[in-house]
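Hi Y.,

Following your request, here is the sequence exactly as I used it, all 287 residues.
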Amino acid sequence: MTKKRKIVSAVILGILMVATLVGAFIVGAEPRAESIQETMQDAVLHESMQVNFFGIAKVNPGLVSAYVVTGILFVFALIVRIFVIPRFKYVPGKFQMLLEELVGFFDKLSKDNSPHRHGFVGAYIFTAGVYIFVGTIFELFGFQAETVSGHSVSLPAPLADINGAICMGCFSYLIILFGGIASNGIKGIGKTLKEFSLPISMSFRLFGALLSGALVTELVYYYTALSIVLPVIVGVLFTLLHALIQAYVLTMLTSVFYGEVTEKHEKKEKIDKKSIKNKLQNKALEG
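Below is the corresponding structure, written out as tokens. Let me know if you'd prefer a different format.
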């Protein structure tokens, strides 16, 4: 495509977008049954959107999303391990290259930030990063569930639920703690406990970042004048951006703090003053 055609295509696309937005504003907004405050509150607390979990209990839809995402990843990993990895070739194909690049990225991240014990933390941050990314883009597919009140609700990202974010933050903190104990014993516990605010910061960073995208999308959808084209753009951009950024931030922080608590400090040899004095005296006598 020539440069002139690209410019024409961009101009036409811009005109169509502007025309669509102008038409949406002319149509105006329809009255809603609940206020914007109630809509935002439901998006955060899920009080009126709970799902009946196999008749056992009423749960937030984020818990259902967590189980679905975990099941998808488990089945995918099983299929790859049984049918794909044994057929890897010396000259990799596209899928093999993608897997190798992904594994290599997290392996390098763990080696750079925690060179002393990078094997286990590399496997963990790979799992955590993939779970955060897949779990975040999961909400784009719009899988539906029926609430206890009989309404249909779209399953959100698992970590958009505060409970899921807290679990991820606390689990990452426990990985760091166990790494410190394995490397430095009781001293490792002391190093880890110094960062007592780490699980809180990790949890709320995840929850706040993922929830902000959901709230912005809810706000755009609430007003009909903005809900024709804009929610698609806003939803996709926010979701993909948060999926990449939050997966990288949590894995990087985990590997950095893991490297700090697993670092071994060599004990300084005690200086024997008496032996040094005797050596100096002997040298003086020989001289």
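The two ends are 89 Å apart (CA to CA).

Thanks again,
Q.
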